[in-house]
Amino acid sequence: MGFVLDSLILELFLIVVSLIALLYYYLSRNEDYWKSRGVPFIQPTTFFGNLKDVVLMRTSEPEQLGRLYFQLAGHSFGGIFQSVTPVLLLRDPELIKTVLVKDFDHFHDRGIPLNEKRNPLGAHLITLEGSRWKTLRSKLTPAFTSGKLKNMFQFVVECARDMTVHLEEKVPDDGGQLEIKEIFAKYTTNVIGSCGFGLRLNSFEDPHSKFRRMGRQFFEPTYWKFLRRWIVMYVPVVQKLKISAFSHEMTSFFMGIVKEMIGYRESNCVTRSDFLQLLIELKNRGRVDEDLPFSNENVITPDGTVQDTNKRDHGLKLTDSLLTAQCFMFFMAGFETSSTTMSFCVYELAINPQVQDRLLREVDETLLKAKGEPTYQDISTMDYLDSVIKETLRKYPVVHTLMRVCTRPYTLPGTNLRLEAGTKMVVPLFGLHYDPRYHPDPYRFDPERFSGEGSRPVIPAYTYLPFGDGPRNCI
């Protein structure tokens, strides 16, 4: 009996050791990936790659990628590891231009995992790939022209007035303190609700509205939420599991409200100059206003097949689910990014009173000329405001990392490095935007670096990329 028990324990021990050995092999098998290719790289830690401090919440991902950017100083590119995934970090502006623009047909995807059946809200322009992305992009681009945005300006003004009333009521007579990011979050929630969904939310009167709660739920940082998304992104084997990036409540909410709004407008012949109306037009007519001019650009599939997106829609059926995903993208990309940028902007204005005074003078002059009712055109002529926002986005880029994936074998120009299909690349903006070679005194808030006045050097191309660049830039 004792012999059998000892044998069983030994077998269990060997099984456990074997499983640990297999796990270690899987987690460490790529650690020589860049070394074997002669690429300068930063030595990873097993499982964590070069993002250990990020996973342990000691620092943020953009800050860590910025540090890795500077650790590779002297090189045009270098190898890093996001968990077990080898990633090429790009540093040279000319190389960045090559990937984003010149040879875009090799790098047209972002490489973000997508399971449409499990995550229907994820099937939007940010994640779609290949011909499906290109077809949808060409159809949605006319919805974001200056003319279309001008038609929505009245809704933005209405939301701004609500915020003004709220601030007048809440600001204490003695100055006091306000949590400005929360105020801006309510404001952008109102704007997105109005311009995107045709809803009059007024989050200032109802701070616990479903829209506001969904925004908090998606963007509120929690460790387990971050860890789940991080593993899904960077551990390939986990991507095959049925892990949803969105809660069931959030999926049901957006799918339900968009379907309800589309049904109401179509059955009651209601129209409104907002994003949802443009999507309804796209669904029913196949286009928004006039289609884009014929394009010679092709998309190359992973198997090397050339697809011409001008001939057909490549199986892109504009279902209510797909349209809902675009509405969700509008919400996701416009809510947190705008409120965060506004928060950082007023922070910099508070600690740089000379910038605040100059901007205030421009605001007062514009309001005086417009008799207190500035138009879209009036705002577009405010050059110093434009410079202040640009400098805010340089120091605090909300899209902190540009991601691309090589879709077919490619040799980097001027090197012998042959990239395999599926190789991931990143451009860390917290490195590029803080590189003193391109942005002197990078930690100083200096809007005039964008004014082009006097002897100030022109910012080199592809060193300031808050919205990306090339065909896959922010729409």
Write a concise keyword list for the protein shown above:
alpha+beta, Cytochrome p450, 2 domains, 4-stranded mixed sheet, two-stranded antiparallel ribbon, 16 helices
Quick take:
Belongs to the cytochrome P450 family. With 475 residues, this protein is of the alpha+beta class. The protein contains 16 helices and eight strands.
Task: Summarize the structure in words.
The protein is an alpha+beta fold. It has two domains: 30-107 and 352-475, Cytochrome P450 (Cytochrome p450), CATH 1.10.630.10; 115-344, Cytochrome p450 (Orthogonal Bundle). The protein contains 16 helices and eight strands. It has helices at 2-28, 52-55, 61-71, 93-102, 130-140, 146-170, 180-197, 210-219, 223-234, 248-268, 275-285, 320-351, 353-369, 376-380, 383-395, 429-432, and strands at 77-82, 85-90, 298-300, 306-308, 401-405, 410-411, 418-419, 424-428. Strands 1-2-8-5 form a four-stranded mixed beta sheet. A hairpin with a 5-residue loop joins strand 3 and strand 4 (306-308). The protein is globular, with a radius of gyration of 25 Å. It starts with a helix and ends in a 43-residue tail after the last helix. Mean pLDDT is 87; it is low at 291-311.
